[in-house]
Amino acid sequence: MVRRSLIVGCGTCLPRRSVSNDELARRVDTSDEWITQRTGIRSRYLAEPDETTATLALGAAQAALAHAGIGADRLDLIVLATTTPDHTFPATAVKVQAALGMTGGAAFDVQAVCSGFIYGLAVADNFLRAGQARTALVIGAETFSRLLDWEDRTTCVLFGDGAGAVVLEASEGVGDAGDRGILSTHLRSDGRQYELLWVDGGPSTTRTTGHVRMNGREVFRHAVTRLSEIAEEALAANGLTAADVTWLVPHQANLRIIEATTRKLALPDGRAILSVDRHGNTSAASIPLALGEAVAQGRIRRGDLLLLEAMGGGFTWGAAAVRW
Ligand code: UT7
Prior knowledge:
Bound molecules: oxa(dethia)-CoA
Shape: globular
Order of helices and strands: EEHHEHEHEHEHEEEEHEHHHEE
């Protein structure tokens, strides 16, 4: 009997304020035309001072639990992926745990920047497969705007804030869930070129939070190659091909990266779930935000094959194959 993790609920939470490219162009030397053509981004949500990673994560968690129809008392694991924790410690996950009224189980953060949700999903899936937890909340939440250098137009126009969450429940597989659930997860990292995409501060070095620094062209080049490789690996591991994919749910960094990856994988047009136009790059939150929206819109149906993929600072990258 194969034990699998089923995704039984999804939820999202965005800050109150959406900021258009035109609005940004009033404070940064940029234009709607440049941002739209180079990235596909038209607007992004930016957190107000009272909106933090934990408040956004809590909103997404409550929505996912409501969608799953279960109470927080059923949870025995919270894995929260973020690069922008509320505090250096404790983990933002324990703030969410307390706010949900969950006193048992374990809650912790994972840090893999834009690949964080895939990493968190893999960690929780392995806990469930190993029998160490039965019901888990996986959250991707960011207030990435707090890391931006508003004098650096090559980065500050790209990112946004938000959170998305999924509830996972262990199932025994055959008879119980058939071939549904998370089929496999695939993680990679390579720290040799970390300065192509990094934050130039931290408690142990500068004792400040620091700002995002990126060599966009190099990151773009690596992203397309690595994302298509890991996506192929996820398909091959399950005896599947691109023709079997109902929906690609990619990390939403740049529409051109998504289109180039889709072409490399030879996926037909229209198979990618897109939210980059309205959210920008929300780092660890982007996949659960895109997924949650698509589920709420009824676009994802029972039996669909989903391929999730992401790449981010580190470099880290990863993919997951999911039968809905
Ligand atoms: O989550 C994973 C992390 N990040 C990514 O995946 C991002 C990967 N990279 C990218 O998405 C793209 O490289 C960018 C969108 C960041 C940049 O696009 P690009 O086509 O690679 O542009 P570029 O960096 O080569 O810059 C082209 C021009 C430059 O001007 P010159 O030197 O050609 O005169 C830049 O100074 O565009 C200029 N530029 C801007 N102009 C207006 C750069 N940023 C802006 C801006 N507004 N915001």
